[in-house]
Write a structure and sequence with these properties.
The complex is a heterodimer. Chain A has eleven helices and 14 strands. By secondary structure, chain A is of the alpha/beta class. Chain A has two domains: 180 residues, Rossmann fold (3-Layer(aba) Sandwich), CATH 3.40.50.970; 128 residues, Rossmann fold, CATH 3.40.50. In chain A, strands 3-2-4-5-7-6-12 form a seven-stranded mixed beta sheet, with helices on both faces. Chain A has a five-stranded mixed beta sheet with strand order 9-11-10-13-14, sandwiched between helices. Chain A has a two-stranded antiparallel ribbon with strand order 1-8. Chain A is globular and about 60 Å long. By secondary structure, chain B is α/β, with parallel strands linked by helices. Chain B has a domain of 197 residues: Rossmann fold, CATH 3.40.50.970. Chain B contains eleven helices and seven strands. In chain B, the strands form two sheets. In chain B, strands 1-2-3-7-6 form a five-stranded parallel beta sheet, with helices on both faces. Classes of the chains: A alpha/beta, B alpha/beta. Chains A and B meet through helix 3 and helix 4 of A and helix 5 and helix 6 of B.
């Protein structure tokens, strides 16, 4: 199986869907002539031309709304936010116009649109540019929220997103664009609402996705090596819809649960997952559910402070040790 | 300034067309008066923004575009929906929150939709729909279709960021969109002079976004028709977008809950002297197409039509509570439920 970069997997997904369906087009800042701020759309302008790979001015509310309007007549826009931190200036388009049109029109208008781009703190960009938006958008009925962890998932989930008849928030991470992974040469799709068991284990369930899932995997390897603790990692892949069944099945087996997110803990995804887990597994829990997330402060600039705020493998490992009552 | 149509190209509307417009305007007015009554009877909830006084704008402009053209508007949408041919009963049913409403009771007064009639809403966030119009225009250009978008909004929308982003994109991409501001003088209770740094709205898009601005008397149905027809020709010819400032006036408050302390009765009465229905009626009388008896007959007939629609909508069933889960997604995936 060929091994390709995360960004190439996304590029392949978009190109294949654009070959398949003439109604698919990509719009965003620097996606065309610049070849993508993070080179995700590299080569696409040359291949598809300027009507299908469209450079927009810096005008998020404008081009997000353009996408929604085009989707209302059956086009399938892929709207790239250079970062989802900038989606906040288009918030009304993303949380009102995209997800509520079908409902408010009594089912007359569908909005098959993908909003994609990076989410999360990574490169010392300070508070305004470091939003992890998964919980913000997962809050909204009518939206779907998808977070791939591997290049394989990036391609399979993005193709599903483009074909989906509802608006999809597709969250990527800058630090992961260069990650390599095996991606089949033949076509495949991955479903939403179906979690992936990234690591099997019997002592503690960790629910983690995207970049946080990589952190959790590092923590799990360390816990195994140092203490013989075997964590089971469940990657939901999509946060809305959320595959709570697979998560609950794991928690029933392990008796404890740690959630890992790079967003904030207050009203975060971890809080939501914890609530749903206790509804399904109240009698199976041997310890309260522990949420690991960014510390509840605006994202600082200094690397030392940033690394303290965003959860690392050490914090995840400590949470798991606490959950399993590890006496070290 | 660009010239939209040569004098010789002007199309004189036929007597049948003008009679149709007269009937449509009377229908909108009677519909709105029925709404006011139903609102007071608490059959209508939420916000309800009436179109009384502005009838000529929707009727004259929509008459000038084709059924295949796209129409999108803001929350004062009853007039546009009726002028587009949406059925009064489905509109009243929507207002009464009934399952048979045009949006199945999910939208209400501010969110009328009709896919078949290319009526794209009914949008309640001020200027939030203007970028959607750009998307409709983009799809037309992308698919090389012979259509235009007619996008309405109020004067208040022109001070929102979404408006300016949308206009810049429409100008940049040269999209076939008629942007039509219905300048009724007030954004809720704030006069346009207290809200807009440049009060002549038609001047605000030409230099800024390369979208020429025209202006027209919105109390004159024929002028509305003529201007919109010319604008649609301009857009269809591939010249890009056009902006039209329509000077109009609403007789009622911003919404049903507006005490209107920001204006005088005399001001309202002054505009009512130039009533758009009265104006067309006068013209039709001069052409011997209307007389007292015909005016009375038309009004009675339309009144009966609206009342019948009201009774049927009123008697129609409410949605089932399980319908709340319908149309959230294409395929329900099992939403969060305890």
């Amino acid at each position: 199986m060929p091994e390709i970069q995360f960004r190439e997997a996304l590029n392949q997904a978009m190109c294949e869907e654009m070959d398949r369906d003439p109604d698919v087009f990509l719009i965003g800042e620097e996606v065309a002539e610049y070849d993508g701020a993070y080179k995700v759309s590299q080569g696409m302008l040359a291949r598809f031309g300027p009507m299908r790979v469209v450079d927009s001015p810096i005008s998020e509310a404008g081009f997000a709304g353009l996408g929604v309007g085009a989707a209302m007549v059956g086009m399938r826009p892929i709207v790239e936010f250079m970062t989802f931190s900038f989606s906040l200036v288009a918030f009304d388009q993303v949380v009102n116009n995209a997800p509520k049109m079908r409902y408010m029109s009594g089912g007359q208008f569908k909005v098959p649109i993908v909003f994609r781009g990076i989410s999360g703190a990574g490169q010392q960009l300070a508070a305004t540019h470091s939003w992890t938006v998964d919980a913000l958008y997962a809050h909204v009925p009518g939206l779907k929220v998808v977070v791939p962890t591997t290049p394989y998932e990036a391609k399979g989930l993005l193709k599903t997103a483009i074909r989906d008849d509802d608006p999809v928030i597709f969250l990527e991470n800058e630090a992961m664009y260069g990650h390599r992974g095996e991606v089949p040469a033949e076509e495949y799709l991955l479903p939403f609402g179906k979690a992936d068991i990234k690591r099997e284990g019997s002592h503690c369930t960790i629910v983690a996705w995207g970049h946080g899932c990589l952190t959790a995997m590092a923590a799990a390897e360390q816990l195994h090596k140092d203490h013989g603790i075997d964590a089971e990692i469940i990657d939901p892949r999509s946060l809305r819809p959320l595959d709570i069944e697979t998560i609950a099945e794991s928690v029933k087996k392990t008796g404890c649960c740690v959630t890992v997110e790079e967003g904030y803990p207050t009203c975060g995804m971890g809080a939501e997952i914890a609530a749903q887990v206790q509804e399904k597994c109240f009698d199976d829990l041997d310890h309260h559910i522990i949420r690991v997330g960014s510390l509840d402060v605006p994202m600082p600039y200094s690397k030392v402070l940033l690394n303290h705020v965003v959860p690392g493998a050490q914090r995840v490992a400590e949470a798991v040790k606490q959950a399993v009552y590890f006496q070290g | 300034m660009i010239t939209l149509v040569e004098q010789s190209q002007k199309v004189e509307p036929s007597p049948a067309q003008m009679m149709d417009w007269y009937r449509q305007m009377v229908l909108i007015r009677q519909f709105e008066l029925r709404c006011a009554q139903s609102y007071q009877q608490q059959k209508i909830g939420g916000f309800c923004h009436l179109y009384v006084g502005q009838e000529a704008v929707a009727v004259g402009s929509i008459a000038a575009v084709r059924p295949s053209d796209y129409i999108i508007t803001a929350y004062r949408d009853h007039g546009h929906a009726i002028a587009r041919g949406m059925d009064c009963e489905s509109l009243l049913a929507e207002l009464y929150g009934k399952a048979s409403g045009c949006s199945h009771g999910k939208g209400g007064s501010m969110h009328f939709f009709d896919r078949e009639k290319n009526f794209f809403g009914g949008h309640a966030i001020v200027a939030g729909h203007v970028p959607l119009a750009v998307g409709l225009g983009w799809a037309i250009k992308y698919r090389k279709e012979d259509r235009v978008v007619l996008c309405y909004f109020g004067d208040g929308a022109m001070n929102q960021g979404a408006f300016h982003e949308a206009l810049n994109l429409a100008g940049l991409f040269k999209l076939p969109i008629i942007f039509m501001v219905e300048n009724n003088g007030y954004g809720m209770g704030t006069h346009v002079q207290r809200a807009s740094a440049v009060v002549e709205l038609k001047l605000r898009t030409g230099d800024a976004y390369g979208i020429p601005g025209k202006h027209v008397d919105g109390m004159d149905c024929l002028a509305m028709y003529e201007m919109t027809l010319a604008a649609a020709q301009y857009c269809r010819a591939g010249h890009g977008a056009l902006f039209i400032e329509v000077k109009t006036y609403r007789y009622r408050g911003h919404s049903m809950s507006d005490p209107q302390k920001y204006r005088t009765r005399e001001e309202v009465a002054g505009y009512q002297e130039h009533d758009p229905i009265g104006r067309l009626e006068k013209l039709l009388r001069a052409k011997n197409l209307l007389d007292d008896a015909k005016v009375q007959a038309i009004n009675n007939e339309i009144h009966a039509h609206v009342e019948e629609a009201h009774h049927r909508a009123d008697a129609a069933p409410f949605p089932q509570t399980q319908d709340v889960w319908k149309d959230v997604y294409a395929n329900p995936y099992g939403p969060y439920q305890l």
